[in-house]
Amino acid sequence: MHLASRRIKVAGTLGQLSGTFGAELRQVSSPAPKGHGTVTHRYREGPLFVPAALDGVVLAVLGLDTRPQARPHFRARDAAAAPADTYPPNQVADIYSSRPGPPARARPSR
Fold first, then answer.
1. Which of 19, 49, 82, 93 is the least buried, fewest Cβ under 10 Å from its Cβ?
2. Strands 38-45 and 24-31
3. How far apart are CA 70 and CA 7, in angstroms?
4. CB neighbours of residue 44 within 10 Å
């Protein structure tokens, strides 16, 4: 139990969790996300139900499905490889604030 975040962690067999929440749970193996071997995980089918005694108390049931999820595909750039014509935000602000005329947000678009 984690009082600060108002969470309760429950554990049990697939049969116990399936019976408690009314969902069909299966444990399967599928190709690993990075393509090396397999990964074993749970997935569920069907809607979830909360026991009547907890109706209105439980807001979400999370973690029954442990399938691999999406992962970020970005790569960090080496700072030395950055183009020479990039500007940090404070330098861009200085460029715009030093121009004569009304503030940039009040200028008419061309």
1. 82
2. antiparallel
3. 24
4. 19
